[in-house]
Amino acid sequence: MDYTLLSSPLQGFTDFRFRNAQNKYFGGIDTYYSPYIRLNGKLIIKASYERDLLPENNIGLEVIPQVITNDADEFLFVSKYVQELGYKELNWNLGCPYPMVTKSGMGSGLISNTEKINHILDRAHSESDIIVSMKMRLGYDNTEEILDVLPILDTYPIKNIAIHARIGKQLYKGGVHLDAFQQCIENTKHKLYYNGDIISVAKFQEMQQRFPTIDHWMIGRGLIADPFLPSMIKSNSLEYPENKMELFSAFHDTLYEGYSESLSGSAHILLKMHHLWEYFSVIFSNPHKVLKKINKTKSIRNYEAAVKEIIAAEK
């Protein structure tokens, strides 16, 4: 069965620099979703969002912009903005689990508000010709919440619904709710994409067997932790390439140079790289030791030396 692999957006991680570097050195992802645009009540697009979506920063990539909002005017404003950049689709985030988002009734905190969801979709479809797709969780408090939303979504020509099979309250803890995802398949006419815990080739194959009708698979944190994963899934291989560390090193250096140019001051650069290594460390033989070594670095020089040592030790 043919299938499509998608990169699920992660705020602060999967920006255009990451997308370009991952695609250049590893490939395997068919479509990338950009981290969400959040307006906070002002109809102004921040420069960082603009940079992330500029066509010249995404050459050769298929990218779908995303918005997080609980306001129809904001949704329409962002729709118009991304269309001006040449995008035809806007993904609406009803999945983000972080308290600062959910407390303001956005992301997965909006799933229980069926009236508002209906109102925004009604205006989006009557006042714009943008293609709308959705990224959701199963609910915020429980997995039943989505079942009240699906009949509403069925009344609109939504392109697809990507479902992360957790509830918002879980953040990323605990397991995925596969029975609840199966219920979604049985309760909507829309095309569903699966998202959640695809962190290895074996896990992907397990999910494929569990949900044989699903042909779009979204990889989130698993892609940052293991940028080799999509191409290994595509080639049905459990083996890393022989030049694993050379590839990872080139990928790391490209990201590092990009962030060194765009972020001001060594503290910001180190913070960014330290966060990335929380994920990267997973593909090394001793993740805990690797991460400890990275986190100890307090200067650019020390950081660069630590990375060299870590990669040399793994070769």
Largest sheet: 9 strands, parallel
How would you write the strand order of the largest sheet? Answer: 3-2-1-9-8-7-6-5-4
Count of separate DSSP helical elements: 14
Relative helix content:
40-55%
Q: What's the pLDDT, averaged over the residues? A: 97
The secondary-structure class comes to: alpha/beta
Shape, per Cα inertia axes: globular
Give the N-terminus to C-terminus distance in angstroms: 36 Å
Number of strands: 9
Low-confidence stretches: none
Classify the beta-strand content into a percent band.
5-15%
The radius of gyration over CA amounts to 20 Å
Series of secondary-structure elements, N-terminal to C-terminal = EHEHEEHEHHEHEHEHEHHHHHH
Topology:
Blueprint: E1 4-7, H1 16-25, E2 31-33, H2 47-53, E3 63-64, E4 66-67, H3 72-84, E5 89-94, H4 99-102, H5 114-127, E6 131-137, H6 145-153, E7 161-164, H7 178-186, E8 192-195, H8 201-210, E9 216-219, H9 221-225, H10 229-234, H11 244-262, H12 266-280, H13 287-295, H14 300-314
Parallel strand pairs: 1-2, 1-9, 2-3, 4-5, 5-6, 6-7, 7-8, 8-9
Helix pairs in contact: 1-11, 3-5, 5-6, 12-13
